Each structure stands twice: as C-alpha cells, then as structure tokens.
Amino acid sequence: MCDYSLMTVPNRLAANGEELIVHRFQEGSIGLASAFEIRLEQASRKLRLQGFWPKLKEFFRPKAEGIPAVCIPPGSRLLIRDIPQNVHGEWGVQKSVAEAVFTQMTAEEFRHRDAVCFGSGTIVLLQRLMEGQRVRVVSVSSEEELQTEPEFGISERMR
C-alpha cells in the first residue's frame, strides 16, 4: 500500500477520482500525494514566508512534512499523465497518458516495492516516475475485492 520508505511520513488511503502528484518527501523517497494538499501547503508556506524575519526563522526551523503520503491498494486502477516522450518505448506506452494497475513487486523488507503495471505488461517502480507527474485514481480496489465469491446452489442458499 505504501512503500517501506514512507513509513515515517503521515499517510492515508486514496479515494476514487482523486488527483495525485508524484512527490518527493522530506526523507528523499518518492511517493504519491494529493494535488490539493500540495497546493494548500505551498499557499500556506508562501503566506508564512512574507518578509525577511519569517524567511530567516523558516531557514533554521527543522523541516516537518505536512503533506501525507497517499497509499494505494494493489489492484487499483490509475491514469498516469505527463509520461515523458523519452520513456514511451521503455514503458510500453504510446501516449503521454496511460492507464495502469497499481501493484507491489515484492514483500521483502527494505526494498522499494510499489509499482504500476501498464497494459503492455511493463512494470515500472513508483520510484522511477517523474516528480510532478499527475496521477488520477480511477478506482480503488484491493486484491481481496478482485477475487470472486463462490456461487452457492439453491439448496445451500436456503440453509
């Protein structure tokens, strides 16, 4: 859901239709953050930093990440935007916008595992997406939801 490298960052679950941005968090890891929350943080910071003394105080203040990481369950469908032309062939996409399924590469500890799988079958680690790229959550789902429930016969339903 959220890469191990984002465990120290406040996080929350994604919502259907949400606009996300590929964001570099304070500790240097790349993850997904809400476009709205990023804009809100930038506007707030801009207001706080008007004048010389506020800027000087901000320079010496320990950095605190106010933007939570947005966690995506495996199996969720995403619309990846702003795909650079130079990676179209490598990623198996033909346009700057492509649908992908969120997946996890491994369960091993201390490894980046969050990735997207494009329709071509190409899997790209989230860490390889470009900072600032836009991502829309088409549908949030989980692997458990993708499994179908067994169908029962009439006699079994009546019990």
Describe this structure in words.
The chain has 159 residues and is α+β, with helices and mostly antiparallel strands. The chain has one domain (4-146). It is 23% helix and 26% strand. It is built from five helices and nine strands; from the N terminus they run E-E-E-H-H-E-E-H-E-E-E-E-H-H. The chain has helices at residues 35-48, 52-60, 88-91, 143-146, 154-158, and strands at 11-13, 19-24, 30-34, 69-71, 77-80, 98-104, 114-118, 123-125, 134-139. Strands 3-2-9-5-6-7-8 form a seven-stranded antiparallel sheet. A two-stranded parallel ribbon has the order 1-4. Strand 7 (114-118) and strand 8 (123-125) form a beta hairpin. It is globular. It starts with 10 loop residues before the first strand and ends with a helix.
Brief synopsis:
Helices cover 23% and strands 26% of the residues. By secondary structure, it is an alpha+beta fold.
What does the largest sheet look like?
Answer: 7 strands, antiparallel
Mean pLDDT over the full residue set: 81
Secondary structure class reads alpha+beta
Determine the N-to-C terminus distance: 38 Å
- Low-confidence runs (pLDDT<50, min 5 residues)? 144-159
Shape: globular
The strand order across the widest sheet is 3-2-9-5-6-7-8
Tally of individual domains: 1
Number of strands: 9
